[in-house]
Amino acid sequence: MSYSARSRAIEPFHVMALLARANQLQAEGHDVIHLEIGEPDFTTAAPIVAAGQAALAAGHTRYTAARGLPQLREAIAGFYARRYRLTIDPERILITPGGSGALLLATSLLVDPGRHWLLADPGYPCNRHFLRLVEGGAQLVPVGPGERYQLTPELVARHWRAESVGALVASPANPTGTLLRRDELAALSAALRARGGHLLVDEIYHGLTYGVDAPSVLEVDDDAFVLNSFSKYFGMTGWRLGWLVAPEAAVPELEKLAQNLYISASTLAQHAALACFEEETLAILEERRGEFARRRDYLLPALRELGFGIAVEPEGAFYLYADIGAFGGDAFAFCRHFLEREFVAITPGVDFGRHLASRHVRFAYTQSLPRLEQAVERIARGLQSWQPDAL
Ligand SMILES: Cc1ncc(COP(=O)(O)O)c(C=O)c1O
């Protein structure tokens, strides 16, 4: 049986092999601390769950319009008005099955075969796979602490090729947690505009920033495409709901794609998400944001103290991307060592690209503070037994 080249070109998440082993160890009775998982440890906030239950009881079990429930699109537009002081026409908002659905729509719309997008490396791995799926490609741009792991106009100028048609950036970013400021977004937007390129900004970690607010690219560029999600800040990963904000002219094409690709996003999830923007829910989400901030404030200095290199203080998301150069050895072997010896699961850099990937690991602080403290104790101990050259 032969499968498509497109499918074969897509890499699995390498961390899945570690996760399978972690689950096996757990089944054998070991107390595994999961710092590899990119989703909030909190369950969905009670008012959202109640709204979902009420929607089910009321029989909201049919398809919605492909663009999504009008009242949810209006609620999101209201959220942009309150949080960002932005007027976004609800007609420009499409509700999607997760931010992943928004990525599928955007790449399907904007990428022709053989066309490339600029992506920061390290970055979210699925981006390049979505581009491959639509027969386009990713131009991976190595980034580091110098540019706070983000694309800059200079990097765009240096890496732009005849086949380049856009750039996809995430702010805050996964795996590094760094943000793009308003002036940086404006400069990036200008750099792409000058080349006739598109700008797609992944704002899925908005709301999860600590001490600063992340500006939306829509504050400086009304023509940018924005993907967002109910997964992270709103804590609804398993409900599979996100959205895309697009320029008005692109909406009919996107609607057509949505109709064909998935008909509509989950109706139940859309009704539940209406409760996301109520004061009561937002108060819970803000409390959780505070908890993530406390975790970051604990884990960041604790890891630095142990010798992990975290050159740039992450201001958002719930990840720390750490250089393990001080300890030597390969990141995948390093992750395996900590899992086997100390039952701490972390993600190897290879899952986020190629640039210095074997020297980096990602910690997700999606565990309670006491669990993080335990993890740090175990990591300190595991470093004593780490032999970089052992196979
Ligand atoms: C940067 C980034 N974008 C998009 C996604 C997709 O998330 P979802 O489909 O749950 O909205 C993720 C998930 O981890 C992510 O980290």
UniProtKB/TrEMBL annotation:
GO biological process, one term: amino acid metabolic process
Species for this entry: Azotobacter chroococcum
Keyword vocabulary terms for this entry: Aminotransferase, Pyridoxal phosphate, Transferase
Signal sequence extent: none
Domain Aminotransferase class I/classII large: 31-379
Annotated protein name in UniProt: Aminotransferase
Pfam family, one: Aminotran_1_2
SUPFAM superfamilies given in the database record: PLP-dependent transferases
NCBIfam families: PRK07337.1 (NF005601), PRK08960.1 (NF006514)
Coiled coil: none
Superkingdom of source: Bacteria
One Gene Ontology molecular-function label: transaminase activity
Cofactor(s) needed for function: pyridoxal 5'-phosphate
EC number: 2.6.1.-
Record-linked PANTHER family: AMINOTRANSFERASE (PTHR46383:SF2), ASPARTATE AMINOTRANSFERASE (PTHR46383)
UniProt record similarity statement: Belongs to the class-I pyridoxal-phosphate-dependent aminotransferase family.
Class of enzymatic activity (EC top level): transferase
InterPro entries: Aminotransferase_I/II_large, AspAT/PAT-like, NHTrfase_class1_PyrdxlP-BS, PyrdxlP-dep_Trfase, PyrdxlP-dep_Trfase_major
